[in-house]
Here is the input.
Amino acid sequence: MRSHLPRPHRSRRLETALAAVATAVLLPLAGCASASPPPDSGADTDLGAYLEQELDWGGCEDTATSAADAELFANPALECASVEVPLDYDEPDGERARVALLRLPATGEAEGSLLINPGGPGGSGTTLVASTLPLWQASPVAERFDIVGFDPRGVGSSTPALDCYTDEEYDAGDALRFGAVYEVTSAEQAAEIAQRCADGSGGVENLVNAGSTNVVRDMDLIRKVLGDERLTYLGYSYGSELGAMYAATYPERVRAIVLDGAVPPDLTASEFRISQFTGMQARFDDLAALCAESPGCVLGTDPAAANDRLHEIVQPIIETPAATADGRALNVWDVYLAISVGLYSEASWPNVISALTALEAGNPDEMLALRDAFYARTPDGAYGLDTDTNLAVRCMDWPRLTPEEQTALARELGEAAPMFDLDVFTAGNYHSECEAWPAPPTSDEPWLADVEGLPETLVVSVTGDPATPHEGGVAMARALGGSLLTVDGKQHGAYLLGGSECVDDVVNAYLLDLESPPADARCSL
Here is the structure.
């Protein structure tokens, strides 16, 4: 069922915002952040002036980090500010970080704020709110709540920036590459990555304080500075981890939490990664079946042979990347990022088929455009998705696999998703990209135990989600003792982004009036 809300034409920026929500399927993230609480509420007494700061809301012209964001942020309906947080919560009198905020003020009398994270790690909440502004302006939630997107430390215009590679290096294909796992094949390469990130990020301390545990503490400080007694929160994908971690850490400070595209809290990182690749393969199989209905399908008329056909199409560029019209070169890692981002939503499958058809005919430009959409790359060459921050966060979140374990994982992922089963992705001897990181991780596995004393929460989970499989949403709702809204469809992210009046009405009722859906609640996209 289509929503009664006006649905504007999907701009390129909205498409990239949707891609940011679904980043979890591509990068080795989501599933193992530690939910063990940081120092409890008593630690607030050490934060002193942090809790007393007043936000200086104003225009957003100084918040944008790209020309595309500058155009979005210029909308006079939006306001921006930043909040100071300790770089290291164990040393609150030490260096400070700043977290960028963007809000759409409530059109009526504000009852509080709705804090939003779009996923990643590395997705920009300020960009997500600005990109989806017409949807929020038509939403009843925005009548009673300020809509606030935040850029977690290291993302967007938040500081310190976390940089391992420049945009130019990403363009040239010289950044760290990802297929089944990151292409790290020696201890020396892992050490070089850690050093690059430390040098580009202003020092080791900035790297080792980038993990999700600190982001959760930032969220609580933001809540306090916004003037909200309790948190009202919407998190997509990796944002569901942040919301669940907040709930486990500060259950008494929760008003309402919506987790859309929830990460499973009961799997190890490797187990979840395999479940993601299984989901991706299922959606590629669906795409192949759709393609086979048309004469001349680039993947052939037998969906069962589509993996082999895909391998044939990409084989020439494994050794020789394809030159594109803008002077860049498309490599096989780019192709698989492009295909994967196109699988996020059933509506985008024709784009993947078209790009594959053009690639086989010798034109890589459509595939490059899909690859750029994954990275939220704008025409001026700015990368909106912060994959360097993604790396830094996960190196602090996750337990590190040994080279033997990392190599075995690459093989298992190729078996779970035969579309990825190319030697260039699975036949190497791999090291963890975090092997030489300058501090140990803070993770426990599985990462979230059952949470008690928590107000009702709401998990939204799509049955055919390729990035965070439905079973994970079921497990998340169970761990939090909350409600589950099952959504029939093949997409990652449903609320506001899926065009479903049913989904939007259920989530709106919960956010506005804390009305939970019945136990068997179900919608469709």
In short: Residues 269-292 form the longest helix (24 residues). The chain has 21 helices and eleven strands.
